[in-house]
Structures are given as C-alpha cells and as structure tokens.
Amino acid sequence: MDAVTAPSAPASASSTPPAPSLEVSGVAYAYPDGHQALFGVDLTVAAGERVALLGPNGAGKTTLVLHLNGILGGGVGTVTVAGLPVEKRNLAEIRRRVGIVFQDPDDQLFMPTVREDVAFGPAAAGLRGAGLEERVREALDLVGMADFADRPPHHLSFGQRRRVAVATVLAMRPEILVLDEPSSNLDPASRRELADILRSLDVTVLMVTHDLPYALELCPRSVILSEGVIAADGRTRDLLCDEALMGAHRLELPFGFDPRSVPVA
Ligand SMILES: Nc1ncnc2c1ncn2[C@@H]1O[C@H](COP(=O)(O)OP(=O)(O)OP(=O)(O)O)[C@@H](O)[C@H]1O
C-alpha cells in the first residue's frame, strides 16, 4: 500500500496522536452573488482517518470540499493540508495532496485510454518513463483495474469508470482522498467492491455522501454540516442513532435500516 501512504502514520500505527491531515479553521464563504454558504467551519481530520461529511441538500458540503484544494477561497478562515496552508502560492502541491473524486467520473476521464488518464496527473507533475509506468500500474492495481489499462474509458461501465477516476487521483499519492457521493449509481456488488477498495487504502478519506449506510460501513466518524455550520461531529453510529439530530437536519435512514445491526467501521 505504499502507493498512497500518507506522510504521517495512520491513527492505528502509533500511540501518539498523528499529525492532522486536514485542519479547517473558521472558514466562512459567500458566493459572488452574496449567498452565504459557510458560516465559520472548524474541522480537524487526523492522518489515516475516514470521515463522512453528511448533511441535507444545500448544506454547504460541496462548498467546503472546494475549499480543501483551493478551487474556492478568499473568504474568512484557513485550511491546511498536512501543515501546508491552502494558498495561491501552494496550489500545485495542495492539489497533489488533496485528490477529489467527483460524482461523475466522466468529469475526470478524457484521454483515449485508461492508462493515459491515470498517467495524466503524474506526467503533468514531471514524472516520466519507468517511474510514470510504475505509478500508473500501482494506482490501477489499487482499484483492481490493471487489466483495463489499454481500454478507452468510455467503453467501461459506470462502476469501472468510477474506479478509474479513483485511480487517477491515487496516482498522485494524495494525503487526502475526497470522494463526492462515491456510491451513487453503483449496483450493490460494485458498491461493495468500492467499499473494499476504500477500506484497503492507507490514506485519509473524507467522503461526502447521502448514503448513510455506506457512511456507517466505511467511516467510524461523521460530521453533519447543516446550513453552513457543523451541527454534529462524532461516531457515525451514535449520530445515525440520534433520531432528534437526524430529523433536525433532514437526514433519513432507509426504511427498516437499523444502524445498530451493522458492524462498526
Ligand atoms: N455558484 C454559486 N453561487 C451562488 N450560490 C451557490 C453557488 N453554488 C452553491 N450555492 C449555494 O450555496 C449553498 C451550499 O451549496 P452546496 O452545493 O455547497 O451544498 P451541498 O451541501 O453540497 O448540497 P447537495 O447535497 O445538494 O450537493 C446552497 O444554498 C447553494 O444554493
């Protein structure tokens, strides 16, 4: 799992607290039209943690995620990734450290072959030759797509394209893997296979999702963002079992789903 080993030790590997992978401090943001989407968000994620970012439509989840690699910024507050502030002068390194997998893999795949798509980021960062080939193979191996390297991405199924999209990000050896609705449009087998892949990675994960069972399965910790503020931060199972909290933030479990019946991530 060297491919995505974070610079700091994962939480389970050390008795001393690991250095934070992500520190968001007092982030507030209004869009140019004046709409205030974030009102002062504080969030610390330790290296190696898997955290679900939950919340109703319009809560500010995407707005927050876009602050993590500097796509949005310029409001109040600070974001640091493994100690490096998200600022204009650091953006190239920040975008290597924060890999965002968008909901639609077709937003991320645009080259004639899977291999070229996965090579694109590391090549743009200057990697060449055997080093580049090795990086691509490593990333495709991590998502179980090595046999598809020479296929055009548009000939793959949706689930396969999502895995390749994950590989394009892993090829950069990110500090944090941010996933936007990773389980959407996946059939149950693909959903489970992606969960197995995510569990196997030695990387900090922040997962935006409306799929609460998936959050429970994969993320020991969840954060609820609601109306631009963090409304709750705790053990995923505890939050999902808190009916008043869930109701207050328009979060609903699937009919008949009992969070107590799922083994803790
Ligand atoms: N470009 C924009 N200009 C103005 N307001 C915006 C813009 N993008 C988003 N917003 C507003 O900011 C708020 C937060 O939106 P955001 O997309 O971050 O929510 P979200 O939690 O990701 O929602 P969803 O679960 O629906 O994806 C919403 O009220 C939205 O209408």
Automatic annotation (TrEMBL):
Q: Which Pfam families match?
A: ABC_tran
Q: Which family does it belong to?
A: Belongs to the ABC transporter superfamily.
Q: What is its main location?
A: membrane
Tell me which UniProt keywords the record has, alphabetically.
ATP-binding, Cell membrane, Hydrolase, Membrane, Nucleotide-binding, Translocase, Transport
Region annotation (Disordered) maps to 1-20
Record bears the keyword Cytoplasm: no
* Protein name per its UniProtKB record: ABC transporter ATP-binding protein
Phylogenetic lineage: Bacteria, Bacillati, Actinomycetota, Actinomycetes, Kitasatosporales
Could you tell me the membrane topology recorded for this protein? Peripheral membrane protein
* Subcellular localization: Cell membrane
The gene name reads cbiO2
Q: Which GO terms describe its biological process?
A: cobalt ion transport
Q: What does this protein do?
A: Probably part of an ABC transporter complex. Responsible for energy coupling to the transport system.
**Low complexity composition-biased segments:** 1-16
Record has Nucleotide-binding as a keyword: yes
InterPro entries recorded: AAA+_ATPase (IPR003593), ABC_transporter-like_ATP-bd (IPR003439), ABC_transporter-like_CS (IPR017871), ABC_transpr_CbiO/EcfA_su (IPR015856), Co_trans_ATP-bd (IPR005876), ECF_ABC_transporter_ATP-bd (IPR050095), P-loop_NTPase (IPR027417)
Q: What GO cellular component entries does it have?
A: ATP-binding cassette (ABC) transporter complex
Gene3D superfamilies hit by this protein: P-loop containing nucleotide triphosphate hydrolases (3.40.50.300)
Could you give a GO molecular-function term held by this entry? ATP binding
